């Protein structure tokens, strides 16, 4: 793991620096490791951060975060592996006005105002939180009892469908 958590984002991007590292989930901020769906907080995530300059002359940081973390399935409450490979480009701007203008012209743009120091760990944490599913669950839990319970319940919207077709 790298000891370099704080960077000067503008200098990092201008010099096209590269940083690679790894974190255990329990080494990250509480907003990540306290997530109720993690089955094991010792799982490891890897990250890469690459600085550069785009064709418009804007400085950017390319962030990649990968990992395989055990989550708790919300159907059967058993552990399941969740693999993710998230990448994103963060364009750096000198001020809020430049950022706002760019965001209005390109809705897919991810940008931020370049501060003097940036915590790489925070970037990684944000990427992990965006990658996590809202409600993790197996495609097929293999639990026949769960399937039976769900199959025997009548659809609560069936009555509404009948009302709609009778008009």
Name the features.
alpha+beta; 7 strands; five-stranded mixed β-sheet; two-stranded antiparallel ribbon; 167 residues
Distance between the termini: 66 Å
Compressed to H and E, one letter per element, the order equals: EHEHEEEHEEHHH
Helical run tally? 6
Count of individual domains: 1
Structural class label: alpha+beta
Residue windows where pLDDT falls under 50 for at least 5 positions? none
Average pLDDT rating = 83
Radius of gyration: 22 Å
Strand order in the sheet with the most strands: 2-3-4-5-6
Number of distinct beta strands = 7
Would you give an account of this structure?
The chain has 167 residues and is α+β, with helices and mostly antiparallel strands. The protein has helices at residues 9-14, 30-33, 96-105, 120-131, 144-152, 158-165; strands spanning 6-7, 18-24, 44-53, 59-72, 79-93, 111-113, 118-119. The protein has one domain. It contains 6 helices and 7 strands. It is flat.
